[in-house]
Amino acid sequence: MNKRVLLLGAGGFIGSHLVEALSKKAIYSTTAVDLTKDKLDEILRPHIGVEFLQLDIAEDPERIGLLIQEHDLVVNMVAIANPGIYVQDPVSTFELDFTENMNIIRQCIKHQKRLIHFSTSEVYGKSPSIYQPDQAFYFDEDNSDLILGPVSKHRWIYASAKQLLDRVIHAYGLKDELDYTIIRPFNYVGPRIDFLPSEEEGFPRVFSFFMDALLYGKPLYLVNGGDQKRCYTYIKDATDAHLRIIENEGGSCSKQIFNIGSDENETSIEGLAKTMFHLYNTYFGRNASSNSTFESISGDEFYGEGYDDSDRRLPNSKKIRELTGWSPYYSLEAMLKETMGYYIARHENVVIQ
Ligand code: UGA
User: Choosing from 28, 86, 124, 158, which is the catalytic residue?
Assistant: First the structure.
């Protein structure tokens, strides 16, 4: 019999890629749950063998409980995951990312279902380099300290909520009441990552701000100068890791936390802006507008009061590589070419229609 997989929060960026990948594997039957399905509409065809349910998990917790009972495996991707929203609406961030997630965890315990839970690289917070600037520190799932900023910087409500969930899940695992895997994504990028701010109001992640600036002739804003660093992971590589975790060969992923990311794809945010600008003009042969300049801006000015930042996020990805054989393929430049290509083509369609 097929393995029945329940994907909660399936309509987001990561979910839409996972749904697509699972639909190509005959051994799974997938139920995808979310409030909206715009991103899934790009991939879902009637024959694809995925059932989509439009549900608000906060409005219908009993239905979610029943669905969890009916499936073999639960993949939980329900979250607000954009820093702009943590700053603008910290209470909603907490309610969804903690309270509603706790209901999912409790139902998995009640019905004895394996849970794959999406945490975040943001739980590591700031790197110890803020105290020892000359050293590079790798984030290790089982040994690194988690360093968050003060309460007055409410950006950290997201990382705190996610961190506490990781600790709760671990604690239930210790009692043998929950079989789980926790995934910590390191800045995934790829088609469908976020909307563009010229087309929809709100705060996407940095890739979409820069892409928007290039397509619509606006400045590329470097928050606090753009020296902060991130390691980028292409969504196809990430989805490959997620599938290996779902397969869980020999139970090797049970009760594990995994960093999914690669230190080879590290860049400063200024470096990311410059690489995207360069690719836009050379690889894609377009002329960025003279308005697309690089401009430094303070975090409070860009996001509002309460913003703070991670200075650097270097993943130690030894565990996922060793336990599942995963190895990422895409370089930073290759993933930017793929992702920018998608947004440029989409933009041309919008302009043509
Ligand atoms: C976010 C989320 O908080 C994480 O949970 C998530 O795991 C992570 O994205 C991710 O994509 O994996 P962050 O990396 O801070 O964390 O998100 P971005 O909005 O992409 O910002 C990256 C950096 O770019 C930040 O330092 C931000 O200040 C800066 N930025 C953003 C700019 O310099 N200019 C912009 O226009 C936008």
Answer: 158
CA 83–ligand 1 middle distance (angstroms): 7
Contact status, residue 175 vs residue 255, Cβ threshold 8 Å: no
Fold entry, domain 79-347: Rossmann fold (3.40.50)
Q: Tens of pLDDT along 144-176?
A: 999 999 999 999 999 999 999 999 999 999 999
Amino acid (1-letter code) at residue 5: V
Q: Whose CA is nearest to atom 14 of ligand 1?
A: 187
pTM confidence score: 0.97
User: How far apart, in whole angstroms, are the C-alpha atoms of residue 8 and residue 14?
Assistant: 11
pLDDT in tens, 188-199: 999 999 999 999
Distance 154 CA to ligand 1 centre (A): 15
What are 160's two structure tokens? 């705190």
What residue owns the CA closest to ligand 1's atom 31?
Answer: 206
Q: Whose CA is nearest to atom 19 of ligand 1?
A: 205
Residue 101 CA to residue 164 CA, distance in Å, equals: 11
Query: How confident is residue 187, by pLDDT bands cut at 50, 70 and 90?
Result: very high
**Distance (Å) from CA 156 to ligand 1 centroid:** 13
